[in-house]
Amino acid sequence: MRPKVIVTRSMPAPVEARMEALFDAELNRLGRAFTREELVDAVTRCDALACTVTDRIDAPLLALAVPRLKLIANFGVGTDNIDLAAARAAGIAVTNTPDVLTEDTADIAMALILMASRRLGEGERMLRRGAWAGWRPDDFLGSSLAGKTLGIVGMGRIGQALARRARASGLTVRYHNRNPLPDEPAFEPDLDRLVAEADILSINAPYGPATHHLIDARCLALMKPIAILINTARGALVDQEALIAALEARTIAAAGLDVYPNEPHVDSRLIALETAVLLPHMGSATLETRVAMGNRVADNILAFAEGRELPDRVA
Ligand code: 8YV
């Protein structure tokens, strides 16, 4: 079977070439995400949909996808853009792309830690404004990483890859997770205690109803005034209003964010804060990883086409 596959966003050239070689593939040449109407049209006309975080695959859309659509192959490890329960109920399988983006996303988390603790964005903005008057002993004093404690909330693949990087920079790592990991002794079962003791707190948990606003106003109030919050997972894991209030009141020192609750909207109050380091959802944005993610999507669709077990099935 050569399935009809609709790819909702333009992908790196090798991925698009492989999709076209393997499947009856329809690629997105619009240079933008599909509108809701285009997405509705797509799900009624294909056997497999290769979609991304910018496509909202909700229950009403899935109802329209029956009986044609059989597989949603998400380009990304997070699947919170898809109503998994509704997909299950509709008999539509869902796959994701784990592993291949772990190292690059951990790099971005570490980059945000460095940027926020050493005030790198602030320094670069000042230099580009032409405002640098030369070296001074008291300019841009940040905080050292060595000797500090990094609290990781969500010790999955990305959390563990971040821990390796952090230890190399002299940070002590502690983590909160659903279960302790056998090879990671620094488990903290009490999230509040981890939040209160961390100098840097990195959110690396999956997003879903159970983790909505996991870091809320109460939690932020437990953080040290010198603490830095890092989020490379999903925006809505953190109560953004409470985070902005904490940064404005300086009850925490800084935040490094790659994700936002309502992307691509970024709150103007965050943009106004020198203590907020803001990236445009770049965690997996390397050519190597985006190609690997695309190949993983193609591998899942190929398994579906050949009637094999789906390697990365999540629903
Ligand atoms: C992707 C991500 O770029 O994999 C994820 O969950 O957030 C990013 O790495 C994005 O999801 C593309 O769909």
Description:
By secondary structure, this protein is of the alpha/beta class. The protein has two domains: 4-100 and 287-305, Rossmann fold, CATH 3.40.50.720; 102-278, Rossmann fold. Helix content is 37%, strand content 14%. The protein is built from twelve helices and eleven strands. It has helices spanning 13-22, 36-45, 59-65, 84-89, 102-118, 120-128, 157-168, 191-197, 217-222, 240-248, 268-272, 287-305; strands at 4-7, 24-26, 48-51, 71-74, 93-95, 149-153, 172-176, 200-203, 228-231, 254-257, 276-278. The chain has a six-stranded parallel beta sheet, with helices on both faces. Strands 2-1-3-4-5 form a five-stranded parallel beta sheet, sandwiched between helices. The chain starts with a strand and ends in a 10-residue tail after the last helix. The model has no long low-confidence stretch (mean pLDDT 98). Bound molecules: 2-keto-D-gluconic acid. 2-keto-D-gluconic acid binds at residues 52-53, 75-78, 101, 283-284. 2-keto-D-gluconic acid (8YV) is lined by residues 52-53, 75-78, 101, 283-284.
Index terms:
Rossmann fold; 12 helices; 315 residues; 6-stranded parallel β-sheet; 11 strands; globular; 2 domains; 14% strand; 5-stranded parallel β-sheet; binds 2-keto-D-gluconic acid; alpha/beta
- The poorly predicted ranges are none
CATH first level of the largest domain? Alpha Beta
Per DSSP, what share of the residues sits in E-state strands of 2 or more residues?
5-15%
Give the biggest sheet. Answer: 6 strands, parallel
Return the domain count: 2
pLDDT averaged residue by residue: 98
